[in-house]
Amino acid sequence: MNIRRFVATDMRAALAAIRGELGSDAVMLSSRKLPEGVEVIAAIDYDDSLLGNAGLADQLAGIAADDSGASQLDEYQRVATPSLAIEREITLAKIAAPAGETNSPESSMAHEIKDLRRLLETQLASLAWNDMNRQAPVRARLLRELSKLGVDSTIAMELADEVPNDCGSQEAMRLIVRRFGERLPLATWDMATTGGIFAIVGPTGVGKTTSLAKIAARFVLKHSVDELGLISTDTYRIGARQQLANFARILRSPMHVAESAQDLRRVLDGFSNKKLVLIDTAGMSQRDVRLANQFTTLNVDGYDVRTVLAVSAGADRGCLAEAMNVFKAAKPEALIVTKLDEASTLGGVLSLAIRNALPVAYLSDGQRVPEDLHCAAPKRFWLLHNALKLSANAPTAPDEHELAERFGHMGFAVNA
Ligand SMILES: Nc1nc2c(ncn2[C@@H]2O[C@H](COP(=O)(O)OP(=O)(O)OP(=O)(O)O)[C@@H](O)[C@H]2O)c(=O)[nH]1
Ligand SMILES: [Mg+2]
Asked: 366: Cβ below 6 Å to ligand 1?
């Protein structure tokens, strides 16, 4: 662990110095006001496991070993947070304790230290956020508005960084919404026109089968149904296969079930005369280990099976990030954003598309087949308009504490 003391004129300058010297993984351990500004103790490679060995004590002893180190240690002890002082006591006590002696009071103290550290971090985040409110009120307001829209913190910060500090708040908001829209990737193709082999993957119940049925119906409106083939790889639930079979019957399209990559190859061989083949996959929890099997099934030599990921606009940011993390193994090349009619914010799902450079191909805003599916390409303005409308009507907005948690840790720079 490398502990450093930073003195700067204000918290912003201290954060910048910490980031510059220790990098963004640095942890702030304490801060206090000094006549000349603010003092922050920060550490890198902070490792809780140090409590279980002599690491910290060695470091402290090492510092104390030479003369300059001794004064550093004095200084450290003078300025260190109570948590670090306690941590040092524990570490030293542990070394002194005979082998095999239980350390339950220590571990409960370790928990307290962790809580204390969390508390300090929260307070520092609060300080930094208040600092931003004072020094860059327009930027703070933009971050507040972007949070209400549901925009991811990193993207919100990047967007806010693009706005000059002397920009008026209304103009800044216009600028930022326009930039957000420009950054949103939208697919310009429609599989119902181009054809191809597409598998729709995604978490349970997001509307994969319904979206597939909508795309199939759009295709049939433009082409002959003889050019359409439907496949289900959902071998886990009879009801799911039945759902697709019902759509296939209504459209009078052939539908097959494939259990493995070999099976899928056989079915695709049989569908070689089809312009569009749509593959419905099983709805599984993103934590289900069988998902990997399903992705393997879609890997068929000699066939370009393209995947699109369906996600619900109503899912919270954590769920969306987890879904992306799991389903990226299926190498999706676009998104279908479903349940727009049920979402309370749109910023989360739009941030997902931006962050992963994954173009949105379709938007689904209802259960009707095929009326409630739209190509996303001409809907950029519509999406932004709806995102703003939802945010304006949102019953709650992130409170100051939440905003400090989201942005206080990130530091900020005032633009010229
Ligand atoms: N409100 C709304 N409901 C939708 C939308 N898309 C699908 N649904 C409904 O969501 C429910 C689940 O849809 P499915 O298409 O079965 O979802 P799925 O992802 O295939 O589900 P699993 O295969 O079980 O994972 C159904 O009741 C659909 O009618 C939409 O855009 N808006
Ligand atoms: Mg389904």
From this structure: yes
